[in-house]
Amino acid sequence: MLNVKGNSSNRQTSATRSFFSPNLIAPFSRNALMAAKGSMEELLSAAVDAAKNAGEIIRFGFHETKHVEHKGVVDLVTETDKKCEEVIFDYLRSKYPGHKFIGEETTAACGITELTDEPTWIVDPLDGTTNFVHGFPFVCVSIGFTIGRIPTVGVIYNPIMDELFTAIRGKGAFLNGNPITASTQTELVKSLLATEAGTKRDKSTLDASTNRINSLLFKVRSLRMSGSCALNLCGVACGRLDMFYEVGFGGPWDVAAGAVIVTEAGGLVFDPSGKEFDLTSQRVAASNSLLKNAFVEALQHEE
Amino acid sequence: MSQYVFCALKSAFLPIPSPNQESRIKNQESRNKKQEKMPDKYSMEDFLAKAVDAAKIAGEVDLVTETDKKCEDLIFYHLKQQFPEHKFVGEETTAACGATELTEEPTWIVDPLDGTTNFVHGFPFVCVSIGLTIGRIPTVGVVYNPIMDELFTAIRGKGAFLNGKAIKVSSQTELVKALLATEVGTKRDKATVDETTNRINSLLFKVRSVRMCGSCALNLCGIACGRLDLFYELGFGGPWDVAAGAVIVTEAGGLVFDPSGKDFDITSQRVAASNPLLKGAFIETLKQSE
Fold first, then answer.
1. CA distance B184 to chain A (A)
2. Which of the residues B149, B211, B289 would you substitute to probe the A interface, choosing the one with the greatest number of A C-beta atoms within 10 Å?
3. Which residues on adjacent β-strands are paired with residue B109?
4. Residues B206-261 pLDDT 10s
């Protein structure tokens, strides 16, 4: 499975603590952040352009017959995934040749790229590949940008429903240019929860998944499974969903953009255990701030 | 509360339109440019056209949030104007007044808002579902999602359409490559929830993945247009969830049946649907998951 490594000496502390505490960023990262300040809007604009270019390719291919390969039993990849990643990287590299790049398909082909403090684009060219193959309209391009391992710019674009989610750290979150906020739901029993079945099909993983879902169904209003981690995060950010969790998804490209969009919409992103979110852990939970504690408790109840 | 709203009515607890609404109905009707006909000369296309008008009026976005009941009144009023001798079965009327028996007579079976939880949360899978049965057979179906602007229509024997373009079910032959939709329903007693999650657990070993989107009628439309390969749901509200979707799936080349494999019963609150190639394996898998 994919495993993106970080700076191992302080992976858990500086990255996650500094996600919430800018004063604790190491000097190197602070310089990088200051150097990039004032150009955050340019970075966002470049990411939006790249996302829309890839979106065109996705839209074009959406109704066509797909040639599907398997990365695992149910983990799919298509020519569109690869083509989109190429288009996005070519575009962003031409503007920012000094930046680092992590993409789902490049990682699958060439192996792990370490996530460092340097400005890094983390890209899923097509999140929701199964949906894409079946023509189910929850697909998106996800482009995140980290500085000092902190998600700082996020763009998620669903070209089928024409929904563009954007955020810059400290500057709010938007859907097609309109500000969005997480829901104000306070009661678990009135909450709409999203999760996914994932791609692993061994008995212990599936049993753990459905046992957890069983336990949660007694506590929440209802459950949604839509097939895109990035769009689930956007759903929390714009209040369509109250809570989301997923464990065992592909990699940081599924969450890098969504994390900043949720946070900028006033929501929280955290590890399902309640601990701080780790971008490389392949585990994520998100909710509005009012529900977090009850949600974390409900998640622990089953494990 | 979600910013998405549903009926155009601003007033009225009575099923009588306000002047604005009445003129809107008349404008919609005049767009069809059909001559008035005697009741016994109506065609299936006439029924479909009226159902589409009613669905679009109910789906219209407005500044005032209205209840499901008012939307249902609006739809019934519109259809009763044209077809006064027909019967009407609606989710909200049934909830208020008790069940109406489904007879052989032409009967409009309506869910004014399928996906109410989604509506409340702003999750974009909501729809109006209007079905017409004749001899208890689903014969005309209209399902309209006003948020995604997707209008699914079908007349028995004449194909199924999405926004006027012909649709058909998927050609998937292998269960392991199939996308399955189901719902967790509304019952939260231990026996039901355990049965639901045990079944999903069992199915996850056999299919590609599972989707839960919150609208029975839209799941049937998903089968019809090939976005989904398999769907089943048990214990949904009533025939209004499936009357329109059943004819849309069938006209798209799919099959609608009881999850046990027996014939579909529109009043049973049980439904399964798939393309014809997958039905056998699907039923077998559902049986094994019990």
1. 7
2. B211
3. B89, B131
4. 999 999 999 999 999 999 999 999 999 999 989 999 999 999 999 999 999 999 99
Among A181, A222, A249, the residue to mutate for chain B (most B Cβ within 10 A):
A222
Residue A218: name the closest of A248, A241, A188, A194 by CA: A188
What pTM was computed for the model?
0.86
Token readout for A141 is 């391009």
Q: Do A206 and B229 touch (CB under 8 A)?
A: no
Residue B268 has pLDDT above 90, yes or no: yes
pLDDT of residue A6: 37
Residue B132 pLDDT grade (very low, low, confident, very high; cuts 50, 70, 90): very high
Which of A184, A146, A147, A142 is CA-nearest to residue A166? A142
| Cα dihedral sign, A167-A172-A175-A180 | positive
Q: Which residue of A has its CA nearest to B189?
A: A218
Q: Of B146, B15, B143, nearest to B78 (Cα)?
A: B15
Nearest Cβ partner of A214 from B194, B205, B229? B194
CB-based contact A74 B148, cutoff 8 Å: no
Q: Label residue B177 exposed, middle or buried (CB < 10 Å: 0-12, 13-18, 19+).
A: buried
- Map residue A299 onto helix, strand or coil: helix
Question: How far is A30 from A35, CA to CA, in rounded Å?
Answer: 8
Rounded Cα–Cα distance for residues B147 and B125 (Å): 8
- Statement: residue A113 has pLDDT above 90: no
What φ, ψ does residue B105 adopt, rounded to 5°?
-70, 155
- Chain B residues close to A67, C-beta within 8 Å: none
φ and ψ at residue B169, rounded to 5 degrees: -70, 170
pLDDT digits (tens, 9 = 90+) for A225-269: 999 999 999 999 999 999 999 999 999 999 999 999 999 999 999
Alpha-carbon dihedral angle through residues A192, A197, A198, A204, given to the nearest 10 degrees? 120
Point out which residues pair with A267 in neighbouring strands: A288
pLDDT reading at A72 higher than 90 = no
Start-to-end C-alpha separation, chain A: 23
Q: Specify which residues B130 forms β-bridges with.
A: B110, B142
Residue B162 neighbours by CB distance under 10 Å: 17
What is the DSSP secondary structure assignment for residue A256, as one 8-state letter? H
Greater pLDDT, A27 or B240: B240
Cβ–Cβ < 8 Å for A16, A265 = no
Backbone phi and psi for residue B117, each to the nearest 5 degrees, phi listed first = -60, -45
- Shortest Cα–Cα distance, A301 to chain B (Å): 16
For the cut 90, the answer to whether the pLDDT of residue A7 exceeds it is no
What is the per-residue pLDDT across A130-169, written as a single tens digit (0 to 9) for each? 999 999 999 999 999 999 999 999 999 999 999 999 999 9
Of chain B, the percentage scoring pLDDT greater than 90 comes to 66
Number of other CB atoms surrounding residue A301 within 10 Å: 12
Which two structure tokens, joined as six digits, stand for B107? 């009967």
